[in-house]
Amino acid sequence: MKTVSLLACLLLIGSPVLADAATPQQQRMADCSAKNKGKTGEDYKSAQKACLSGPAPAATTPQERMKTCNADAAAKKLAGDARKTFMSGCLKAN
Predict the structure, then answer these.
(1) Is the alpha carbon torsion for 40, 43, 49, 50 positive or negative?
(2) Which of 25, 30, 27 has the alpha carbon at shortest distance from 12?
(3) Predicted TM-score (pTM) of this structure
(4) What is the dihedral of CA 42, 46, 49, 51, to 10 degrees?
(5) Rounded distance, CA 32 to CA 37, Å?
(6) Once rounded to an integer, what is the mean pLDDT over residues 62-83?
(7) Residue 51: in which H helix or E strand, if any?
(8) Backbone angles phi, psi at 31, to 5 degrees
(9) What secondary structure letter does DSSP report for 81?
(10) Element (DSSP H or E) covering residue 65
(11) Is 90's pLDDT higher than 70?
(12) Which of 4, 31, 35, 61 yields a CA-CA distance of 20 to 30 A from 81?
């Protein structure tokens, strides 16, 4: 957990410099950190964990949607018909 907090702090410090070069994950971490500003200790940690493990923001291009849905399906270890059903719903939802 200290690593996540340290990474979030470093991201906030470097965000003005790296604003144009932020990856989607870095942007998500910055957004979650800003959303949970003012919270401390375990309250902050649990809020960060909930924010970061929640669904990703909707992707805009078909390639981004496919990449996000593939990553989600792989994380859930889906295969066969279950994967096809998940991918179909995921691509339509995004």
Answers:
(1) negative
(2) 30
(3) 0.38
(4) -130
(5) 9
(6) 90
(7) helix 41-53
(8) -65, -45
(9) H
(10) helix 62-75
(11) yes
(12) 61
Q: pLDDT tens digit string along 38-67?
A: 888 898 888 888 888 877 666 568 888 888
How far apart CA 14 and CA 28 sit, in angstroms, is: 14
Q: How far apart are CA 72 and CA 45, in angstroms?
A: 23
Are the C-beta atoms of 94 and 69 separated by less than 8 Å?
yes
Question: Inter-axis angle of helices 62-75 and 80-93, to 10 degrees?
Answer: 140
Q: What is the pLDDT of residue 76?
A: 92
Amino acid code (one letter) for 94: N
Q: Who contacts 1 (Cβ-Cβ below 8 Å, separation ≥6)?
A: 45
* Residue closest to 72 by CA, chosen among 55, 85, 84, 59: 55
More confident residue, 17 or 54: 54
